[in-house]
Amino acid sequence: MFTNLRRGSYVIMTLILVYATYYISLGLLKIGFNGASGEFFFIVLGFYLAIPLIKYTKIKKNVIEGELEENYKINKNLKKLNILGNTIEDATLKYKNQDIKIEKLVITKKGIFNIVKCNYTGDILIEEDNRWHKTKNKRKDALLCPINTIRNYRLALTSIFEEEEIIDLIVIVNDRIYIQGEEYSDVPIIRYDEILSYIEDYDGEEKYNEEELYERIYPSIVNTKNTSEDNKLYNLFLDYKWIFRSRLAFISVFLILYLLNIVYLNK
Fold first, then answer.
1. Which of 113, 135, 116, 140 is nearest to 210 (CA)?
2. What local confidence, expressed as pLDDT, does residue 59 receive?
3. DSSP state of 205
């Protein structure tokens, strides 16, 4: 991902290139080569803008389908807690001769945080029986309840850990959601940007040895997901998004100046 220093140097380079294209096009315009001026201006800047847009669009498909953004949001906050190394992502555990896939486990001295991500959008209603519905225009549509998923994960984890060592948690990873009836949920619900403070402030009765907890679960892990490649891809996605927007901003400004010069010179 771009650092602030790299972004600053990139802004200067972009400004120089866009201005140089504008300056040359304006020079051609002043000596009467209107057609060549327009072609040069729009072709050069069109290609310059299209390159990051194509790359951004191509990566965006993988980001959406692979849920990279959801994992990135959570891991970014966990990294601040310096426990990312104790995070197990998309782990497949052996449980009663079956493979159980678990979304995310965070091993801390306070216990094992059993995390399920929720990416629902819109108005969500949680009823007293823990059923989740999406509401729109007085209509209620049943949703897959994250609590059921949590319970299935917990069932597998209790074959390794004591009940009190497991801390269930639902993390909302979408900003475009409004939840009503959150108090009826048997499992705490937090936003992705609250996970850091929630784990830090969690007041467990006992303190555990993190290494010992990890060693207990390790033999049951069939495989885990390597998140480093996903994080690199998502950072690349953010970089191309930023590149496209910065180029678009400069090109828009000089496009207006170029059009104003055309109007002025044709008077």
1. 113
2. 78
3. S
Region of 42 please: left (phi>0), alpha (psi -120 to 50) or beta.
alpha
Among 33, 194, 192, 210, which residue's Cα sits nearest to residue 112? 210
Query: SS3 helix, strand, coil % of the chain, rounded to 5?
Result: 55, 20, 20
Among 247, 251, 250, 236, CA closest to 56: 236
Contact 158, 150 (CB under 8 A): no
In order, the DSSP letters of 113-181 are EEEEEE---EEEEE-TTS-EEEEETTEEEE---HHHHHHHHHHHHTTTS-GGGEEEEEEE--SSEEEE-
Residue carrying structure tokens 């990139």: 10
> Which tokens is 257 given?
């100046």
CB contact at 8 A, 116 and 171: yes
> Is residue 91 within 8 Å of 153, Cβ to Cβ?
no
Cβ pair 48, 17 in contact under 8 A: yes
Which amino acid, residue 39? E
CB 152 within 8 A of CB 116: no
Calculate the average pLDDT of the chain: 85
Is residue 41 within 8 A of residue 261, CB to CB? The reply is: no
The CA angle 213-217-222, to the nearest 5 degrees, is: 155
Q: Which residues contact 157 (CB under 8 A, 6 or more apart)?
A: 93, 102, 105, 112, 114, 166, 217
Tell me: pLDDT of 208 over 80: yes
End-to-end CA distance of the chain: 48
Per DSSP, what are the bridge partners of residue 133?
125, 142
Between 195 and 2, the higher pLDDT residue:
195
